[in-house]
Model the fold of this input.
Amino acid sequence: MSALKPVRRQFTARQAAERLGVTTRTVQRLMAEPRDQYLARANTKREQIAGLRAEGLSIRAIAEKLEISKSTVGRYVQEYEKKKQAV
Done:
């Protein structure tokens, strides 16, 4: 069972479980985004980052433009560059 409309939480699963009087695992199961949707969203983000990096944008500029952390952008850029070198 997973959430029909997954939303980023503003609190931890533990905090929600304490408020609702259920286990942490129950909250995780109910709030989880389906794996295939998560992977599709992550792959789209990777492609966007690769495109922006190819345009010459810095990691900081990409992070600001996509409103995500610099460390996430850095990780995706490293993955992309490793793939490029392997080919």
